[in-house]
Amino acid sequence: MKDGGRIAATIEVLDDVLDRRQPVKAAMRDWGKKARYAGAKDRAWVSGLALDALRRKNSIEHAMQAEGPRALALGALKHAWEWDVRRIETAMKDDHAPTALSGQERECLLLAPDPSAPPHVMGDFPEWLTPHMTRAFGPDAVIEAQAMAARAPVDLRINTLKSDAEKAGRALESVRAQPIAELINGFRIPAPQSIERQQSVEAIPAYSKGWVEVQDMGSQIAAAAACVQPGEQVLDYCAGGGGKTLAMAAAMEGKGQVFAHDVDGRRLSAIIPRIKRAGAHNVQLRHPRENASLDDLQHAMDCVLIDAPCTGVGTWRRRPDAKWRLQPNALDKRRQEQAEILRTACNYVKPGGRLVYITCSFLTEENEDQVADFLADRSDFSMAPVADAAAGSGVLTEQGAALVRKLSRPDGSLRLTPRSAGCDGFFVTVMRREA
Fold this sequence. Notes:
The protein is an alpha/beta fold. The chain has helices at 3-19, 24-34, 40-55, 57-64, 69-79, 85-91, 103-110, 119-122, 130-137, 141-147, 165-171, 205-208, 217-224, 243-251, 265-269, 271-278, 320-325, 328-345, 368-377, 386-391, 398-407, 418-421; strands at residues 154-158, 178-179, 186-189, 212-214, 233-236, 257-261, 283-286, 301-307, 349-359, 381-384, 414-416, 426-433.
């Protein structure tokens, strides 16, 4: 495909995303079924431009003085991919390209970004989130949000049940993975350039052997905050796909027990092949479809980890389309779910045990407010420093421990963001139950 045809395809994909509220993956799949002629490079090009356009939707539409898929695609070529106007005009003359640039489009593409644009435009986030962003970040809200509009790398965790950093690191050279300075067993594949294809980890032998797992650095640090030890009894109450479950199982060296639970049986089922591949024999599923009760775990767990359902705003780099589907009622719904989960899951913590509350969100309403409300009702729990727990896990390097201490909040909780830590957005709190 020539660039003009690729631009037209991007507009079609963006139309599905914005008008039909389709996730980008689904829109790309639908387009791909119709475009059998498109090669892997074409698909990577179209997907990359669509995602970059969505990452910077507000600022691009503001610069183009127009809304919609065409304005987004053309504006992304200029403002995300740094094409000059002449190159864009040339591409629009290709076969199967959209109609030529209008005079207004050309003029807008030549203009510099507007430094007086409102925060939600400069930061590329939904306007209704402005007070929530300001509450979370104060005067740094725009800068923090802009970091969330960048492309994300692929982070990996070495599965120490089957390999080690040295052996697995050699196997990862084919995907250009480099050690993460903050993690003893972490590697990172850099984010691709605009038209590059993302390296596929699943295609390399080290992945199929169970030597590595895809897991963001922030998620690895969050799991480290549980500071689980061999022989402990641990409940991952919202296990989902099992990333933190497997990280804890490896940290426990296969000794003790990790009980993986989730009310969404479909999500929990996804962990089954991952458990087998990782060789995590100390993981036991408590699956809702099997009516598996948790009654026998009451007041018996050394650690209960809650990776709570949330708005997911911390993952905007990876899922920019979700940013524009988020509505205020979703925040209210998640807050209710989080409060209920905290009230229920805490009862599995034994006296002297710990409760770890995690979200992939930076919103105060889902994080500090939830913890404050919970502690107001449960005087038998108290805050413990996340930095001490994470540093004591053996997962962090000295540089990683220093980063966590630097980013710790006065109450001992931890907030990670793309700007502050170079990872997805996470909030982590450790609470201990009175012995």
